[in-house]
Write a structure and sequence with these properties.
Length: 342
Amino acid sequence: MTEEPTITTIAQHAGVSIASVSRVLNGLPTKAETERKVMSAARELGYVPNSAARSLKSRRSNQIGFAMADIGNPVYLAMIREIQPIFKAAGYRLVLHSTDADTADEIDVLRGLGERYIDGLIMIPLRLTGEHLTMFAAARAPIVVIGSVPEDAPVDNVRTDSRAGVRLAVEHLHGLGRRRIGFVNGPLDTVPGAARSAAYAEALAALGLPYDPGLTQVGDFYRAEGARAAARLLDRVPDLDALLCANDLIAFGALDVLRRAGRRVPQDVAVAGMDDTDLATLAWPPLTSVSLGSAERGRAAAELLLDKLENTRRAPRVVTVEPRLVVRASTDPSRIPGEEAP
């Protein structure tokens, strides 16, 4: 195998010093004849300039980072499908990083901004801490956060009103005549978990329904954890007639549990999720879900970051995407082929 040319081989081929080659390849002033020899030798040897070296000169890597909790979550995949084409068209590569919702890992990503391996960052921290806010303020590259942050946070922010989304779902289930409305949530120490827990209680109160902590179960934002949490809730509350899940993955797990328990969906138990992922239409029955605008949030975040890269001195901006309820057969029997509403 032929070895790739280096600045040493270029120097030997051109008959100049290594220092002269380094100066030419890094765009530093040098004699015209020396530059001609070096560039001619580089072409003849097939030398490809190192992108890291170029970035040292320009202070830009032409790469954008996207840090999310779980790269397999369909919410984040929907965002990536919007984010990547926008940056690709602008000449940037998208670098993906899965943090597993680990705060220390997220802080490491933020600290790495000082190394200039990316020119900007889109981040979705599930647990927002004071250290996050400190790192935002000290960041040496633009940051866009998808999710709720304090109003004075020094970053661009794309958010959705998940509390309003929970209310839409609870009102929908109540309108169907359901009164034993259970709730399977993710961890309460996360931003979405805390917001959706509070919204569930508020929505019940607005409808004149009592809040019963026995109707709630905390798990995690994954299908397997959702199944375990739904099973515990169903064992405790066998007369449950509706179930709201804090995301679609939890809802898919709950559908598995209800099927194994012989409970018909939606006739016995109406089930609603949140996020309205692509998989919602593939579930059986197809899942009613609250759309939180994953694609719209991804697109807005990419546009904000591109603008910030060009207008570094502008003040932070906030974009809010409104939720909407998408009704399918998991709550509406009339939408199941061959069946009619009672």
